[in-house]
Write a structure and sequence with these properties.
The protein is mainly alpha-helical. The protein is built from five helices and no strands.
Length: about 90
């Protein structure tokens, strides 16, 4: 993080740690392939790339739990799946 103050942002760090766990589960490359595919499909669906980003299952899980600093200790594997169809 280039901005030093961001290193102290526990919520942002937790959000990114959730993404790291998602990447570990999907072995990194498939994570990015699914992320991009979901973003493209949702961009076509919503005709709005930012709204598409906000609705990617990986982002929805991370944003939903970024304030729960203990989330990763209780998170079940592949929890992002339940955010796919919501």
């Amino acid at each position: 993080m280039k901005n030093g103050s961001l290193r102290q942002d526990d919520v942002l760090i937790n959000h990114e740690k959730i993404h790291l766990r998602q990447q570990q589960e999907l072995l990194i490359l498939p994570f990015y392939m699914l992320y991009l595919t979901e973003w493209l499909l949702r961009t076509v669906w919503y005709l709005d790339s930012y709204r598409a980003y906000q609705n990617i299952s990986f982002e929805r899980e991370a944003y939903s739990h970024e304030h729960e600093l203990g989330y990763l200790s209780k998170r079940k594997s592949f929890s992002f799946i339940k955010y796919l169809c919501r």
